[in-house]
Amino acid sequence: MALTLRSIFICTLLTILFPNQTKAQATGNAIKASIGFGSSSSYYIENYGSQDEIDVMGGGLYFQGEYIIGIKSWLSLRPYAGAIFTSVDKNQNLQNQPQYKVTTNAFLLGGKLRLCAPIPWVAPFIEGGIGTSIGKFETITPAVNFNKSDILLHIPFNVGLAIGRRNNFEIAVSGYFHPAAKQSSGVFAVGYTFPLD
Questions:
Q1: What is the pLDDT of residue 17?
Q2: What start and end residues bound the annotated signal peptide (predicted)?
Q3: Does the residue 146 lie in any domain?
Q4: What is the pLDDT of residue 22?
Q5: What is the distance between the alpha carbons of residues 22 and 10, in angstroms, rounded to a whole number?
Q6: Are the beta carbons of 95 and 3 closer than 8 angstroms?
Q7: Which entry of 10, 52, 137, 147 is 20 to 30 Å from 85 by CA?
Q8: What phi, psi does 24 have (nearest 5°)?
Q9: Does 5 reside within a domain?
Q10: Among 69, 79, 73, 76, which residue's Cα sits nearest to residue 26?
């Protein structure tokens, strides 16, 4: 416990004494490109823990681009555009039974706000925002039957690490929640930031 408090005190003291040396992200404008693995799942766990548990998750490709407006070294606005394409393998053993699945094939547009710890080389961050998804959503489970091509609201939430000398590389876990489709998309992605200023 004493070691943890000492570490927190030292980091806080160094941040106060050397504010110009502690930059989590560059102020100014930049562009970030990300690619990764995306998966779609239902809000509801179907028969969790029983032998009849149903695996309805879809998996696939995710990519996104962001325009970064750096306000402070620890705060930025991030309008984004991206896409997620997930699908489910068909189970050939289930003849004449319903094929339950959760898939998302959509373009993502929106804006996020990032709070980033001003730590050199490894800067943890958290992001949240609001956006819209344009595409096809399928949530077909015993509890939900949603199958539409539509424009839906989504809520993005991300946590990750900005790493490197200038924190240009990123590793993040993201969630895009689609309340109308009763599904969420989870993403593991890597990204690189290209400064414009």
A1: 53
A2: 1-24
A3: yes
A4: 47
A5: 13
A6: no
A7: 52
A8: -80, -35
A9: no
A10: 73
The string of pLDDT tens digits covering residues 114-138 is: 999 988 899 999 999 999 999 999 9
Residue range 18-38: mean pLDDT, rounded: 74
* Amino acid 160: pLDDT: 96
Tell me how long the chain is. Answer: 197
| Residue 168 domain boundaries | 26-90+97-195
Residue 2 φ then ψ, to 5°: -65, -35
Number of domains present in the structure of the chain: 1
What DSSP element (H or E) covers 12? helix 2-17
Q: Could you report the per-residue pLDDT of 84-120, keeping only the tens digit for each? A: 999 887 765 655 556 778 899 999 999 999 999 988 8
Q: Domain holding 163: CATH number?
A: 2.40.160.20
Distance between CA atoms of residues 1 and 40, nearest Å: 40
Q: Is the pTM higher than 0.70?
A: yes
E strands, the chain, are 28-42, 58-72, 75-87, 101-116, 121-140, 145-164, 169-178, 183-195
